[in-house]
Records
---
Amino acid sequence: MHLSAEEFKKQRLFLAPMAGYSNLPFRRLCHRGGVDFNTTELVSARGIVYNGLEPSLRYLLIDEDTEGPAAIQLFGYDADDFYIAVQKILDNTTLSRCSAIDINMGCPVKKVCQTGAGSALMQKPEQAVKIVRKLQPLCAGAGKYLTCKFRKGYLQEENTAAEFALALAEAGVDRICIHARTAKQMYAGKADWAVFATVKNKLLTHGFGALPLIANGDIKSAADCRTIQDMAEVSGFMIGRAACGNPYIFAEIKNPEFKVTAERKIDDLQTCYLEMTEMLGEITAGKEFRSMIMPWIKGYAHSTAYRQLCGKLTYKSEWLNFFPTLLELFI
Ligand SMILES: Cc1cc2nc3c(=O)[nH]c(=O)nc-3n(C[C@H](O)[C@H](O)[C@H](O)COP(=O)(O)O)c2cc1C
């Protein structure tokens, strides 16, 4: 799929990359649930350089025919690592069909930041710029957009997003997404949506007002999107945790009348599970699906019993017997 520059700019709703959740089967549900653009979870650029694509293939896998436009997200520090990793992606028949390469500049996890990658790049903007400058011609030459996802800042109270965004804009990034928390905040506290206006103003005053800016952090409803839109002229919204257990949130935002039926939820859960078994085998899929299903069943009167039951499911036959029992919970 090739998105024209016009189409690329028009994308409104994004699924956030989430390690352990935003795999291809789940992203397909989001696509059917109204998302405009998907992103894979983070994969190490250096890992690809040293071990090739094969060990990370399950995380890198995209299929735009069934999930819509998608980006592959990489993390790392060294610009040459990124260059080689992207070259390998572009040389792969399946992966080269992605619409964009996204660089993770927001991961707060210690193991990642210690290597200078993820949100640590916000403390070294010159390195982040080097990465974008190195990748921009490669991506543009292959018809891929280059995007970056970062945070409000690195330290607890830091707000460096505007300068950081400007530096990336000058380096040639095609779209930015900001998680409105600092890295030190991890996922705690309320996201500070005021950051989007600060960034937008900075971009506008330096002639980059047209650069698509995606808002992220604690977005759970159409009302949240409107609130953010009233605060700043963002071009889209990225949703993470609120989509886990509710891939229909995108349709709900687009159409307030939209209501998902219990039958569809069960059918979708089963489809997602079966696709995971095809990808990962029965045992691994069963294990991973146990945590993926948790957000779907929380908040109901009998959730606890269902949660305990899920914790014991392993084999395909057990899962297939379990799904229909969810009808009682969902209606
Ligand atoms: C379980 C989990 C895994 C995540 N993995 C990634 C990741 O691989 N790459 C990334 O850029 N952000 C990752 N994030 C951050 C999300 O993309 C998003 O920025 C964050 O959850 C805030 O959005 P939300 O409030 O809508 O969830 C992850 C978040 C969670 C909860």
Note: The chain has two domains: 5-254, 262-330.
---
Amino acid sequence: MATPSPNISAPLFAVLSPAGAAAIAVIAIWGEAALATLARTFRPLGTKQQTLPLKERVGSVLVGHWQSDLDGEAEEELVVALVAPDAAEISCHGGRSAVARITQSLAREGCVLVDPALYVARSTCDALKLQAMERLTRAKTSLAAAHLLDQTRGALSSAVRYMIDSLERGDVAGARRQIKDLLTTARQAIHLTEPYRVTIVGRPNAGKSALLNQLVGYARAMVFDQPGTTRDVVQVTTALGGYAVEISDTAGVRETSEPIEREGIERTLASIATCDLALLVFDQSAPLTADDQAFLAQVLPRLTAALIVVGNKSDLPPQCSFEQLAAINTTIARAPSLSASALTGAGIRELLALLEKQLVPTPLAQGSPLLFSRELEQAFRQILAALDQSNDPRAIARQLAELLARS
Ligand SMILES: Nc1nc2c(ncn2[C@@H]2O[C@H](COP(=O)(O)OP(=O)(O)OP(=O)(O)O)[C@@H](O)[C@H]2O)c(=O)[nH]1
Ligand SMILES: [Mg+2]
């Protein structure tokens, strides 16, 4: 005889409280059809309709009675909490017969009795999922939201559980590989929750502020035909390739004894030290001078980030070339470069494309586990270091488990 195929959309239910042990018993029912099933047998007080739109009352707690036979008597008084569009918790009298009556009635409706641990696992939200949820509420782009949503659904949590399993089995090499894989995308993944920082630097009057305005598409920074116009760091946040990017326009760097300008230049230098990418802007319509050398001597030692060299004012006759610039310094020689005009907009589209390519070289795979914050990246670097030094894989497994645990 053929076995009947299981109904895969049947709601599941579980008795959460031990039978006959407490005054109140709680039965959970969940699954896509859970509330529709409940509506057939549960009558909230004050309603006579046969089918109630319970889905519209999610979040509320209803008092009523159980009535598995529509023409019969009310069988049990109970309270139903509609906890989700696909889940409810039924509280009834704690006695065995009351619980049996409801569970038998649910079984007759086609629901499947399962272990209560399944319900707990379904509703348990670990600390990593919670962190992702919190970040999701502040996501700046739809791409960031999509990747964070994956993490709220457990992409990272599952990867961490997998690492724990590997360590518990004594597969240290496997766990190390999994952690390293996760760390390879971390540099990019942290920018799902924190913008990339791009700093525009150059000598006064090179056209930095005009370039910022072109990049963001509106007149954010003041542009003026006077060296030393920008005094403080001017920041604008935009999006490139689905990532938030904060662009900083800075005070032009030169030798000066003027205290406010000097303070502005200090801020420029601090901004260079912390950015992810620097746009080094030259005025290619002016010949290179000793001041350029002095400027580069101040800026380049502080630069650890990626670099793009921009020859601005390409609408004017050229007075210096990229070859001359490259001859000054090998860091500049190795950097990608392009010509642009912040006045006419020539080369700006290419510059934006180059910026995107430098900042976001590879797209992150959909659904993949991601270390979406600097804190998480640091935690996994420490765990990797601990794994390299320790001969107790289970202790490392416990450290990983702590990342999942809610305080
Ligand atoms: N012809 C031409 N002029 C430009 C271009 N970009 C900027 N300028 C002009 O150059 C002057 C200086 O521009 P800014 O953007 O203020 O220069 P800056 O580098 O921000 O200068 P500081 O703030 O003093 O460091 C202004 O008169 C701009 O109109 C360009 O691509 N072509
Ligand atoms: Mg300026």
Note: Confidence is low (pLDDT under 50) at residues 1-5.
